[in-house]
Design a protein that fits this description.
Length: 612
């Protein structure tokens, strides 16, 4: 902070021994320090300093040998009498001065630096100092001028102004500065001064004196220390980077290389030189080598890792498969180009509970994932995904109702059972605790001769439970394939994966109808040959094992025979009687309804074949 200095000077020059050039200044607005000269250079005794103000009578007198006194700052003006005494104590010169408030200068005390702390890993200096605010009224604006210097010659690097507000307390202020040159390369120095803007003060205001210089020594000041700095550091693509080589006294640097290119060197001290790399491009996964070649064939080096700050995570999504673990996934965006201990790190923070977990991610996967435990009695989760690497950090957030983000695991242990030709019973297990929601499960039914069908069934969820469903109206003697998938019933999010396929064949049922039949009469007319068409699979309801062919006269069977598969015809002797011929298809479950045809000859002119 800048502090203006103003002096009060007596315009009168008296005879020998008279006081002159009276100057008064204040550091704290309450007390002021007054100093003066004496017109002669001879030896003097004590000086009597007396002062009066409008509200202070009689005069207050002080004795001093220093030509310097500290007195209160007057409300408006003060009359000062300075008497110079001889060594024996006899007064021999007296001078009177009138001090007005506009003649008093305000100059803050010189700031005192508490600490100057280096962080070599980031080339950052941390400066701490006390603002001395307790001696001033509340709310004054303070300005602090901070000067950074480097090298043995204290070359000025930068000067900044820092603003603060005084609070009538002594506050420790802190300020950070990052150097464009590693702190190891050469010594850095800091000094500070202040200016306090006391608007109600009518006299001149000035900056304080500069504080004593604080130093952070470079490695080039330490005996027996050498190396290339910074060591194995990480910077952003496009950065301008300064790299230095510190060597032993008496050695010389031949050249410095960045990758394979030789760079011009910047002299820092007798033991340190640097190079400046502009607009650094992304390095290989193993980094970029920097080599310092010294006289006598020796060399030192370091590795620079140049990459990108992490992107904001894209498509952050969180769901649960079992109400035990919440799985959050996201896409990381552009690769950082940093690997190993410098890779991008992720953490998942839940704001409602205050719980935080670190995420172990696989850099080789395009999609990242992180698990977070489901918390008791909490349905809503307010997630912040934090992302950081040595270059930077960012985050993405998501508010989610877990009951609306359920993606169960694929059903397990699917079994199909049944002792029926048209129905089956399915059982399956889902790993998870779904007691707080209802589940919707979808059963896929397929067979070789029909289209795939889907059957939905809703049921209460359970804890690590087995679930069941009954399927009816199936077709007899059919080989079916079943599989199951499930989701939340009330707030559908997505289906689980399908279970494994389970096969089941329904039992046989009696054939649905009799076969199509026809006949041929023999030329002699004494016999008929009966033919039938095999039933389709959907009509047979099982494996047809035989056909029963009968000849009836007035409900009385004249002849009956069993014809086994695969024959599809037989011959019946008529004798003297016509009859009604019946054909019944049989499987292991029973017989079909009969198909009938008469043996009576059709009228002349009609064809001799007849089909039922």
């Amino acid at each position: 902070i800048l502090c203006l200095r103003s002096l009060i000077c007596s315009q009168e020059i008296g005879s020998l021994g008279h006081a002159q050039n009276l100057k008064c200044l204040t550091h704290n607005l309450r007390k002021m320090i007054c100093t003066w000269d004496v017109s002669s250079k001879g030896r003097h005794g004590q000086t009597d300093f007396c002062y009066t103000t409008n509200d202070l009578l009689p005069a207050v007198c002080l004795k001093t040998k220093e030509k310097r006194v500290e007195i209160p700052v007057p409300e408006s003006s003060a009359t000062v009498t300075i008497t110079t005494n001889s060594i024996s104590g006899t007064a021999f010169a007296t001078k009177e001065f009138e001090i007005h408030k506009t003649d008093i200068s305000f100059v803050p005390l010189t700031p005192r630096i508490l600490s100057l702390t280096p962080d070599f890993s980031t080339s950052t200096l941390n400066l701490k100092w006390i603002d001395n605010g307790s001696v001033f009224p509340y709310g004054l604006d303070a300005f602090w001028q901070i000067q950074i210097l480097r090298k043995e010659v204290m070359e000025k690097v930068t000067q900044v102004t820092y603003y603060s507000k005084l609070t009538h307390e002594d506050i420790i202020l802190s300020w950070n500065w990052t150097s464009d040159m590693p702190l190891e390369c050469t010594s850095h120095y800091v000094k500070i001064r202040c200016y306090i803007n006391v608007t109600q003060f009518v006299g001149p205001k000035d900056w304080s004196d500069w504080s004593p210089v604080e130093e952070v020594p470079g490695k080039d000041t330490e005996p027996n220390v050498s190396g290339v700095f910074p060591q194995d550091t990480v910077v952003a693509v496009g950065s301008d980077v300064t790299i230095c080589c510190v060597h032993q006294e008496g050695r010389q640097i031949k050249q410095m290389k960045y990758e394979r290119e030789i760079y011009p060197m910047i002299h820092l001290s007798s033991r340190s030189s640097a190079i400046r790399v502009l607009n650094a491009s992304a390095s290989h996964a193993s980094g970029t080598n920097v080599v310092c070649e010294l006289s006598e064939g020796d060399m030192d080096g370091t590795v620079l890792f140049v990459g990108y700050a992490p992107d904001i995570p894209q498509n952050l999504s969180c769901e649960t498969s079992n109400f035990l673990i919440i799985k959050c996934t996201w896409k990381p965006g552009r690769p950082s180009g940093l690997y190993g201990e410098r890779k991008t790190k992720y953490s998942l923070f839940e704001r409602i509970s205050g719980k935080n977990v670190s995420c172990e991610v696989n850099e080789m996967h395009r999609e990242r994932a992180c698990d977070f435990p489901v918390l008791a009695d909490q349905k809503t989760y307010d997630f912040i995904l934090g992302v950081s690497n040595p270059i930077g950090q960012t985050e993405s957030s998501l508010l989610v109702d877990l009951t609306q983000r359920v993606d169960p695991k694929a059903p397990e242990k699917l079994t199909v059972s049944g002792n029926s030709s048209t129905s089956v019973h399915l059982r399956w297990f889902i790993n998870g605790s779904f007691a707080e929601i209802r589940l919707l499960c979808q059963i896929e039914i397929s067979s070789g001769h029909s289209e795939r069908k889907l059957h939905n069934v809703s049921m209460p969820g359970g804890k690590f439970s087995t679930y069941t469903a009954q399927l009816n109206t199936l077709h007899p003697y059919t080989k079916y394939q079943f599989r199951v998938r499930c989701s939340a019933a009330d707030h559908f999010w997505r289906w689980s994966d399908w279970s494994r396929i389970e096969e089941h064949t329904t039992l046989e049922a009696p054939p649905a109808r009799g076969p199509d039949i026809w006949r041929e009469r023999s030329p002699s007319g004494k016999s008929l040959k009966i033919f039938w068409k095999p039933l389709s699979l959907s009509e047979a309801n099982g494996r047809i094992v035989s056909h029963e062919v009968s000849c009836y006269l007035l409900e009385t069977a004249l002849e009956s025979k069993e014809v086994t598969e695969p024959s599809n015809s037989t011959e019946i002797k008529l004798g003297k009687n016509d009859c009604v011929i019946s054909v019944v298809a049989k499987n292991h479950a029973g017989s079909s309804p009969p198909s009938r045809i008469t043996s009576v000859e059709l009228p002349s002119g009609e064809c001799s074949q007849q089909r039922a």
